[in-house]
Amino acid sequence: MKHNIDWNDLRYLLLVARHGSVSAAARELGVNHTTVLRRINSFEEANKLRFFIKKSTGYKPTPEGLQLLEAACAVEEKINDLERKIKGAENEMSGQVRITAVDSLCHPLLLKHINSFTHSFPEIEVLFSATNQVLDLGNRDSDIAVRPGLDLPEHLHGYRVADMACHVYLHEALSEHDPDSLPWLGLDRPISTTYIGQQYEQMIQNKSVAFRANSFKALQMAAEQLAGCTLLPCFLGDTSDSLQRLPGSQYTFTTGLWVVSHKDLALSKPISRLMEHIHAGLQQDEDLFAGQRSRCF
Prior knowledge:
Blueprint: H1 7-19, H2 22-29, H3 33-47, E1 52-55, E2 58-61, H4 63-88, E3 95-101, H5 108-120, E4 124-130, E5 144-149, E6 156-171, E7 184-187, H6 195-203, E8 209-213, H7 216-224, E9 230-233, H8 234-237, E10 243-245, E11 252-262, H9 269-283, H10 286-289
Helix pairs in contact: 1-2, 1-4, 2-3, 5-9
Organism: Gynuella sunshinyii YC6258
Domain HTH lysR-type: 5-62
Family: Belongs to the LysR transcriptional regulatory family.
């Protein structure tokens, strides 16, 4: 019997398998929970097999489902490779470009350069995603990423903007207190798993941690409300009206700031031009990222 498999059905199955959750897959796909369940049931009925078992820990593939997942992953990679090459062949300065950045860069330092680019190229629509999750550029979750990191993975093309320094800050009203007597603010996933996050978490393992967040913007706002000592990128902490650095070089951590894309996507004229524009713009504030200058906006 011939089976006509719809690639969109496979996408639904792959996402449920990766997340172990219908709800999480629905959120990523931008559809409701019922739609995902209907696509799974339809696929299973049409192909006379059971793809998932629902357990208390989530949806788990059956042995038959695992075999199909392996093949579906291979199909997905081929399709993604084709889409990247098609996107990379673009030469017209028009269409959509997706860019992602950590939420702390929802800031004039980055957004002013995206704004100036769209004014220069009004036929290009920039789709901006602020998230601390590392989006998969190979999977075309984004075309460009502005993100911290120690080095550039081999499959990516990009530019190192600057050193990105982070330091421990506290409200100026707490500056006379012994830091060990104050609450400390901790990091949550995913930023706690980064190089700087791991260094900071090791430093505060014996501190009294009162609050955790997965966002440096949230930590900045908490510290401005006298919540305690917290790690912040210097371009946030140094531009706050009420925060100051905790004295001591042991409270400084440094990584790199990058503008990157997948090597295939970087061949696209709109993507490469936006990357170059952001890189050149951000480099104007290289010393602020490196924690060597204070500046107010």
